[in-house]
């Protein structure tokens, strides 16, 4: 007790604003349920597992800890299971999360000799008792992230219900025997509440559902409300009413009156169909609900190093699928696992390691790759009888809460519990990793994905311009006009399965199939660029653009543009397969650079430069970007800064400049400042770069190339190690292919090592799953479920990851 009293100055009573960690170690995924429990530093309120608390003492000198240990209580074998009725977790009527009950014990532990004092105890100093009580009563920082918030939005009254027009055309709806008026469907039928037409619902991604006749009827007539037959009972609040113009399930407060108009006595009807919400609920209770999760097949579970699942935090499958593939690459495996220990990361971390990206990446890497947390769960809840318990084919997985909080801190969307686009997350993640490794390019694992793109613009004058940029993904359009017919695609699939000794399932969907080579061809194909300002003609004109790669990265990520905009800017997912071989060769995509017979467009004079800077943005490009949710001003800037080259170029510019300090500045001001920067460089910034050891000429060139930003100028110099004051990075003449010396490079042959698949009507809903080629076999990573993949959905990928063969 005297030892504790002598260290009272190192004990703090938490303030309401303090973040208190008591559910998870900030260095590992240990919890109070782990064998050694959890130690909460009573000065910083950070938590540490048994193997790591000593490191914190060495680093901070803080000796007093609250030890929390949770032990499972025995659970009666005859405990009844309740069926969920609400799309929620851990609430009354929601999913039973099967969380067993725990007994929790507390002790005060004093390092370095691990003196242990029981709590509660009247002998403890009042300051310690008050501090512990505050810690135990406070909400843990981990749970303030609103983990597992699945509750569906509450339905609202439809604006169209009050004055709904109903047409007296003699329609009387019978109590049973319903059938679509335009096909033979007898289920998933919707009654239009205006004219009484009974029509089938929308067709799902897998061919199930209806034939779209109900929504087509709305498009033809504009009649707004429909109710799903089979969901109408005496409890009218449970009926599934859908509003087409509002595009969501709604409440119809006059539903009884609207049904009676067509002779429907709702009091006598029985429920025979699931509502839309119940269908969503059913899909969330059955994780084998689609092809990408290999439904209907027994998946052999895998355990051990490299086979650890990630717990779904609530719509976090986009993060889980992406990070599983990322950490299967050698670059990230080496950087954050093989070459960096947890202790090394902790010693170099900030005072609060929970907000240190390097620490949390290292924690995640060791959690996924060490195998420590990839062990079979015990079948019985009573761990006291663990010796008599048998493992079951599942693992608990690890929750990437702290990593998600850190990586999302600079992105408002990723910090929410909503589903996100895996592509956007990958690009944001890579950007954050690159920033964290600024000044250490050799340690930066994101460079393994980075490559150069060179665009050639041919003006009608016969002169050319070359633009260079760097990227991390190759985004590919899908040329549907080159697709195989559904029948040919089916027979090709059948032949491939036959070679593997497999049969095509009766449920296999026939879809048109496009070869990956045709998708790659769209990247290099000629494209017209309208409103291109030609300095040779001093006028806007139409140029011809082609593109190639200046370097071949260690890992090539292909993004399939399966989501397109239809007429009226309505997003649509392409119902198509991609024929992806295991080996691809992109050698022909190497850019050749400026050729001897080509003449560059002249540099703009001051007036022309100002004019080019003030080019009006293409409204077509701006409209497409705005339909994706971007700000109008930002969309204009993206179009102008890419010379209206196209939506893809504008999108890439926008994603890489979202954090620019002047992104919200008016365009006119930006143009003026850009023009000034072309002729003037702040000498103080030049002097700063010179103090870093760079030559003055190179410093000036870097500041001009980066718009006067010192940090970006430093990056530019590191990315152009061979540049001199006389070199020209924008236009070169060469008889041989261009090589970007600043980036990894090699041959053009690649092997498929992973894919991220998506199911859903948009990238912001549905589910993501990863398939990775490991140890000579394909493995499925479906959140916390990891197993041998018998039938990887290579044809359904959203992101494909290829590894260069000559690494």
Automatic annotation (TrEMBL):
Reaction(s) this enzyme catalyzes, per UniProt: Thiol-dependent hydrolysis of ester, thioester, amide, peptide and isopeptide bonds formed by the C-terminal Gly of ubiquitin (a 76-residue protein attached to proteins as an intracellular targeting signal)
UniProt cross-references to Gene3D superfamilies, sorted A to Z: Cysteine proteinases, DNA helicase RuvA subunit, C-terminal domain, Zinc/RING finger domain, C3HC4 (zinc finger)
Domain USP: 308-805
A Gene Ontology molecular function term of the record: zinc ion binding
Domain UBP-type positions: 156-266
Domain UBA: 616-657, 680-720
One Pfam family it belongs to: zf-UBP
One GO process term, biological-process aspect: cell communication
Enzyme active site: 317 (nucleophile), 767 (proton acceptor)
Transmembrane intervals: none
Enzyme nomenclature, EC number: 3.4.19.12
Record's keyword terms, sorted: Hydrolase, Metal-binding, Protease, Repeat, Thiol protease, Ubl conjugation pathway, Zinc, Zinc-finger
Function: Recognizes and hydrolyzes the peptide bond at the C-terminal Gly of ubiquitin. Involved in the processing of poly-ubiquitin precursors as well as that of ubiquitinated proteins.
Name of this protein: Ubiquitin carboxyl-terminal hydrolase
Organism of provenance: Nyssa sinensis
């Amino acid at each position: 007790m005297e030892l504790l009293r002598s260290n009272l100055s190192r004990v703090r009573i938490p303030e309401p604003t303090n973040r208190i960690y008591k559910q998870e170690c900030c260095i590992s995924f240990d919890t109070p349920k782990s064998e050694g429990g959890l130690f909460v530093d009573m000065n910083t309120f950070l938590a540490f597992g048994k193997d790591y608390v000593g490191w914190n003492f060495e680093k901070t000198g803080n000796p007093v800890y609250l030890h929390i240990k949770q032990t499972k209580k025995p659970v009666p074998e005859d405990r009844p299971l309740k069926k969920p009725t609400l799309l929620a977790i851990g609430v009354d009527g929601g999913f039973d999360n099967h969380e067993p009950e725990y007994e929790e014990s507390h002790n005060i532990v004093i390092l370095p000799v691990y003196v242990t004092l029981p709590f509660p105890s009247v002998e403890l100093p009042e300051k310690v008792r008050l501090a512990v009580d505050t810690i135990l009563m406070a909400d843990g920082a981990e749970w303030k992230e609103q983990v597992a918030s699945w509750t569906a939005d509450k339905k609202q009254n439809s604006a169209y219900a009050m004055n709904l027009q109903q047409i007296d055309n003699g329609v009387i709806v019978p109590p049973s025997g319903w059938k679509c008026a335009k096909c033979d469907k007898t289920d998933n039928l919707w009654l239009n509440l205006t004219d009484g037409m009974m029509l089938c619902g929308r067709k799902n991604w897998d061919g199930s559902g209806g034939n779209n006749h109900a929504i087509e009827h709305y498009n033809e007539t504009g009649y707004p409300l429909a109710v799903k037959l089979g969901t109408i009972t005496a409890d009218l609040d449970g009926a599934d009413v859908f509003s087409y113009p509002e595009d969501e399930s709604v409440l119809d407060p006059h539903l009884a009156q609207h049904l009676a108009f067509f002779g429907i006595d709702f009091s006598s009807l029985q429920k025979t169909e699931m509502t839309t919400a119940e269908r969503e609920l059913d899909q969330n209770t059955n994780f084998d609900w689609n092809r990408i999760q290999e439904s209907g097949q027994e998946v052999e579970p895998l355990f051990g190093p490299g086979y650890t699942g990630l717990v779904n935090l609530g719509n976090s499958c986009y993060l889980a699928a992406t990070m599983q593939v990322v950490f299967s690459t050698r670059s990230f495996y080496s950087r954050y696992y093989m070459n960096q220990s947890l202790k090394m990361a902790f010693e170099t971390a900030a005072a609060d390691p929970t907000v240190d990206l390097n620490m949390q990446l290292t924690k995640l890497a060791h959690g996924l790759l060490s195998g420590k947390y990839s062990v079979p769960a015990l079948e019985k809840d009573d761990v006291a009888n663990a010796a008599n318990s048998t493992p079951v084919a599942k693992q608990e997985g690890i929750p990437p809460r702290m990593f998600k909080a850190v990586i999302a801190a600079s992105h408002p969307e990723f910090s929410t519990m909503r589903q996100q686009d895996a592509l956007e997350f990958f690009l944001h993640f890579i950007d954050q990793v690159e920033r964290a490794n600024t000044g250490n390019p050799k340690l930066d694992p994101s460079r393994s994905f980075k490559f150069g793109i060179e665009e050639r613009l041919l003006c009608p004058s016969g002169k050319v311009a070359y633009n260079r940029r760097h990227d991390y993904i190759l985004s590919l359009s899908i040329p549907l006009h080159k697709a195989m017919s559904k029948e040919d695609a089916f027979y090709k699939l059948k032949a491939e399965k036959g070679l593997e000794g497999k049969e095509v399932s009766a449920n296999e969907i026939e879809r048109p199939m496009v070869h990956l080579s045709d998708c790659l061809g769209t990247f290099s194909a000629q494209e017209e660029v309208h409103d291109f300002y030609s300095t040779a003609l001093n006028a806007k004109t139409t140029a011809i653009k082609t593109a190639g790669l200046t370097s071949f990265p260690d890992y090539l990520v292909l993004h399939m543009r399966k989501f397109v905009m239809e007429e009226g800017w309505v997003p649509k997912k392409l119902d198509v397969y991609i024929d992806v071989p295991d080996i691809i060769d992109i050698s022909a995509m190497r850019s050749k650079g400026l050729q001897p017979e080509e003449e560059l467009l002249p540099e703009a004079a001051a007036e022309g430069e100002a004019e080019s800077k003030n080019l009006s943005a293409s409204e077509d490009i701006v409209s497409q970007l705005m339909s994706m949710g971007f700000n109008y001003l930002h969309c204009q800037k993206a179009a102008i800064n890419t010379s209206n080259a196209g939506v893809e170029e504008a999108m890439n510019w926008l994603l890489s400049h979202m954090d620019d300090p002047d992104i919200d500045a008016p365009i006119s001001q930006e143009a003026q400042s850009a023009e000034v920067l072309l002729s003037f460089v702040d000498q103080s910034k030049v002097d700063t770069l010179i103090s870093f050891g760079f030559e003055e000429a190179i410093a000036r060139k870097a500041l001009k190339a980066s718009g006067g930003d010192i940090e970006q100028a430093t990056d530019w110099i590191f990315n152009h190690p061979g540049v001199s004051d006389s070199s020209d990075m924008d236009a070169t003449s060469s008889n041989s292919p261009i090589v970007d010396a600043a980036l990894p490079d090699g041959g053009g042959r690649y092997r498929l090592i992973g894919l991220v698949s998506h199911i859903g009507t948009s990238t912001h809903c549905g589910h993501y799953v990863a398939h990775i080629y490991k140890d000579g076999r394909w493995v499925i990573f479906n959140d916390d479920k990891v197993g041998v993949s018998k039938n990887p959905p290579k044809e359904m990928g959203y992101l494909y990851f290829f590894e260069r063969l000559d690494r």
